[in-house]
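PROTOCOL LOG
Step 1. Enter all chains and additional molecules of the complex.
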Amino acid sequence: MIVRVLKAALVAGFLAACVAATLQIFLTSPLILQAETYEKAASPEAHGAGHGSLNSPHEHHASPDAGAEDAWEPSEGFSRTAFTVLATLVSGVGYAAILVALIIAAGREIGMQTAVRWAIGGFLAVNLAPAVGLPPELPGMGGGHLAERQIWWVCTVLGTGLGLYLITAVRHHAAVALGLLAIGLPHVIGAPHAAAASSDVPAVLAAQFAARSLAVAFAFWATLGIGLGWYWTRQQDGTTSELLSQAARVTSRRKAV
Amino acid sequence: MSTLIKQQAYVATSSQRLVAVFAAASFGLALVFISGFASPEALHNAAHDWRHSHNFPCH
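Step 2. Run joint prediction.
Step 3. Record the structure below.
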């Protein structure tokens, strides 16, 4: 069971990452590079050719190596793209593993329809709901309160996921009410924002990035769901036919005896 | 015969399911944490563009 789950997560995550990484190269990465030129112009003291914002004044990571002037970063071009693809793959497999675990924990049989439905739920919980409070940001936008934003993001993902499950699976009046509360509460509390979120990045660029980011995320989750449903069913068919052929061999041997 | 075999192929025991759920969930959470949240600068820099694209709070 565990091998089968991990294999399915690897395959679905790989397929989702292939689609998302390709789309990112053409849709979102060019906007990130463009935004970084504004960011660098705004803070010329930021070092490095890559992600100057790391050392910008609003940065407040408390990591052990924070403040190290020569923190490693991939060089521009192929290396940077390769690491972006790698990160996409790591997240893809991670999300696929979590999705399989959730579907099995909920006692559902994994098939194409179930996998796609749960994957769309994943998009709603992980991308769409947090984006309502914290829209996808380009480098050089917003910033500050990183830990608080991360906590809000995690709470919103968990709340939306729980809410969707309660509304769609439990279908009791109280569960629906509780589900709506879980989805709505993070937005009632509100996302933590930087005090003065002014930025030199043009609004058109930011709006385009937010829309493209959500579109890529949807393609990512849809592929993940389709990949998971396809591979899980394929594995199931393989196991069944293998057992059937084994049984046929045993039966013919018995007949021969 | 074939029905029985199909059932054997599909049905995993509840303990197997439990182990698979916990293993997959912790494996998945670890991977998402590393690519989306881990704060060491080298990891942040490597995953920077993905974090922005996928709307993880980045910096």
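Step 4. Note key features.
Chain B touches chain A through 47 residues (CB under 8 Å).
Chain B has a mean pLDDT of 84.
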